Amino acid sequence: MYKRRLFTPGPTPIPEHVMLKMAEPIIHHRSPEFNEILTRVNENLKYLFQTAQPVLTLTSSGTGGVESTFVSLFSPEDTIIAVNGGKFGERWVKMPRTLGLNVIEIKVEWGKAPTREQIEKALRENPTAKAIYLTHSETSTGTATDVKSLAKIIRNNSTALVCVDGITAIGAHELRFDEWGIDVCVTGSQKGLMIPPGLAFVALSQRAIAAMETSKLPKFYFDLRKALKSYKKNDTPWTPAVSLIIAVDAALQMIRTEGIENIWRRHERMAHAVRAGAAAMGLKIFSDSPSYAVTPVWVPDNVEWKQFNKILKNTYGITVAGGQDDYSGKIFRISHLGYYDELDIVTAVAAIERTLFDCGWKFDIGAGVRAVQEYFTGGK
Amino acid sequence: MYKRRLFTPGPTPIPEHVMLKMAEPIIHHRSPEFNEILTRVNENLKYLFQTAQPVLTLTSSGTGGVESTFVSLFSPEDTIIAVNGGKFGERWVKMPRTLGLNVIEIKVEWGKAPTREQIEKALRENPTAKAIYLTHSETSTGTATDVKSLAKIIRNNSTALVCVDGITAIGAHELRFDEWGIDVCVTGSQKGLMIPPGLAFVALSQRAIAAMETSKLPKFYFDLRKALKSYKKNDTPWTPAVSLIIAVDAALQMIRTEGIENIWRRHERMAHAVRAGAAAMGLKIFSDSPSYAVTPVWVPDNVEWKQFNKILKNTYGITVAGGQDDYSGKIFRISHLGYYDELDIVTAVAAIERTLFDCGWKFDIGAGVRAVQEYFTGGK
User: Fold this and answer.
1) Residues B93, B127: contact at Cβ < 8 Å?
2) Model ipTM?
3) Which of A11, A59, A67, A126 has the smallest C-beta neighbourhood within 10 Å, fewest atoms?
4) Among residues A226, A258, A290, which one ends one of the domains?
5) Do A249 and A266 reside in the same domain of the chain?
6) Rounded-to-integer distance, Cα B230 and Cα A34, Å
7) Which of B258, B293, B315 is a domain's end point?
8) Chain A interface mutation, best of B17, B22, B88, highest count of A Cβ atoms under 10 Å
9) pLDDT band at B149 (very low <50, low <70, confident <90, very high)
């Protein structure tokens, strides 16, 4: 039997009853039935982001969701600051430049999070900056940023909008949009929300909504003013991805039932368990500030990534993510974002353990899964 | 028993085995399995558009697909000509204006198609026009444009790119992208392709691809140069809507099996059958040039649209589309685009017939379905 299991940071596995929702006959998007679904989705998205403000749903990938915030909030030549500590941070530098903004880049070494000092310096040197973009969980490096602390620093030292790429963070890391003073937060559907890719979600503060009024960058499909106007009637300006909205409705109901604090705690525990398992097998964690969504691990010496990945996938059916750019072949990333429980972590570590064994890596077989069990039970 | 049936021009009904495809466990979009699917989709999309040129797949609604063509092919202040004969044509005037283009509008009365003379005049008066946008099937009015003839006129009289909104036309109306000299054609997933909304498809001629090289409008998510570059490796620049691509793969295989000419013929026959049924019940067709995708019908005198629609929906489970703007309450639109066969047309006409009867409309009950049967059999 060849059983597949996905441990990638998006798409993440979809709960079985949510998959079945997408197999139901389609309904029309301008109908009372769909309006009822979107009303519930809109309400539950506020819970997910811990906000009383609107959270808009767009039909696009997360990248499209982030683009919507640039084109809808800013004008040509506006200065914004963006943190680049990986493939996604890099994109949030390139994209606004391409769209006509003046982008101040805070370059951060891969595997490190931006520091308080870096943010303060950038704000001091660019007092006219309209916004700072932070990546809460940088998927490419498995590195988390302390959004709570940095948001406070930004709020205390400037009028810049606090904009957060929450694409692989929402649902894994604590995020309190209103309480922390965040202005913009974007996520995608194929991450903590546990459904297929195709939807982006954008939370907006009143300051962000006010910025939209004076924004002059050209926009149409991604015009959040249009989206906000429709949102107020629980509608969308363009035909939405109906089946994905029906799926996210079911997923959000699961999230409410489990409770967002419990979900954050579950992810934190799963991340710590993976790290404990990795350490017990002699693997080193790549990042200084590892994410709760995805754990980045150095490929050990004497193990060849391609062979490792082939065995992991073909023999054990497990898909993880490799390293990117300079870290291709050097690190790999184990995702535990979304529809995973503690036993899934045992499974992932067990498969990695067997693969390392097959690759001839010298270690105490069984140490990985035992460390996971010890972490979860608190025993030793 | 309350059985629902959708006769709306998008979303259209989804074949049962295609629905089930979307209930399968998700796979990663950077994997050999997904690459194989996208390779087949890319090949079959060429067949659908009858082209040897690339057909790009974007994660967005059809509106996003059309936007991608404006931002990717043109530069600020470029002149384009757009035909506005309904809600969608109107959007293809507003959108490029908002994005910074100089738009010459050919205003066409609702329910009429643009004439040869209107196109020739616009070309004569605007010799620098970079493109003309035509709506093949204007959904809001159920009106078809003779793209084949107009494309020839445009090609013979100018260097303007022939750009076609094929959103509700592809799969219903004959369209031969290469043979007819079309440069750009866009469709959406929830139309003739029979899957849920969330994907747009953009076919591009070599002239259109050449235009992309000099285009200066700002773009990122909708940059078709990026999409084309990835397309060549059967990949996408951003995370695609994986489950919808898996669905469209199955739908395209159905389309190949039936054969595109057969599909066009089926739609033509279904449209004629609906018109025959409508006429037999004493209903008048709204358009001078009715579409094969959707038939627009005047709400008869003494019948109140709201009551009619309520009975049709609540008693007979049938959803059709109402009129828009000035025609709200005055016309309604019966869709026969996508997954419909001849017996479905009997069903739709039977339900409309019973609803008219319930509304007190005076006619020979049974005449509608008889006319449909006569049309299909050629008998009388």
Assistant:
1) no
2) 0.95
3) A126
4) A258
5) no
6) 35
7) B258
8) B22
9) very high
Task: Check residue A131 and give its pLDDT.
Answer: 98
Domain of residue A332, CATH code? 3.90.1150.10
> How many beta-carbon pairs below 8 A join chains A and B?
174
Indicate which CATH number applies to the domain containing A242: 3.40.640.10
Could you tell me the pTM of the whole model? 0.96
What pLDDT shows up at residue B74? 98
Mark yes or no for CB contact A239/B19 under 8 Å: no
Q: What is the mean pLDDT of residues A282-309?
A: 97
Q: Token digits for B123?
A: 């070309």
Pair (A201, A182) in one structural domain: yes
Compare all CA atoms of chain A with the CA of B64 and give the residue at the minimum distance. A221
Q: How far is A63 from chain B (nearest CA, A)?
A: 7
Q: What is the CA radius of gyration of chain A?
A: 21
> Looking at the structure, do residues A200 and A346 belong to the same domain, yes or no?
no
**Preceding peptide of A11 cis, ω within 30°:** yes
CA-based angle B367:B371:B376, to the nearest 5? 155
Tell me phi and psi for residue B69, to 5 degrees: -75, -40
| Domain match, A120 and A178 both | yes
Chain B interface, best mutation among A8, A26, A248, by max B CB count within 10 A: A26
Which residues of A are less than 8 Å from B99 in CB distance?
218-220
Q: In this complex, do A29 and B197 lie within 8 Å of one another by their Cβ atoms?
A: yes
pLDDT tens for each residue of A94-119 = 999 999 999 999 999 999 999 999 99
* C-alpha R_g of chain B: 21
In this structure, are A29 and A60 located in the same domain?
A: yes
Number of domains chain A is built from: 2
Cα–Cα distance, A137 to A231 (Å, whole number): 28
B338-343: long-range contacts, CB 8 A cutoff, minimum separation 24: B338/B12, B338/B13, B338/B171, B338/B172, B338/B191, B338/B192, B338/B193, B338/B194, B339/B12, B339/B13, B339/B14, B339/B15, B339/B194, B340/B13, B340/B270, B341/B266, B342/B266, B342/B269, B342/B270, B342/B273, B342/B376
Residue A198: its chain B contacts at CB < 8 A?
59, 198, 240-244
A380 — pLDDT class (breaks 50, 70, 90): low
Tokens of A285: 């964690």
Q: Are residues A231 and A318 in the same domain?
A: no
Report percent pLDDT > 70 for chain A.
Answer: 100
pLDDT of residue A74 exceeding 90, the answer is yes
Q: What per-residue confidence (pLDDT) applies to B380?
A: 64
In A169-243, where do the E strands start and end?
184-188, 199-204
User: What are the phi and psi torsion angles at B250 (to 5°)?
Assistant: -65, -40
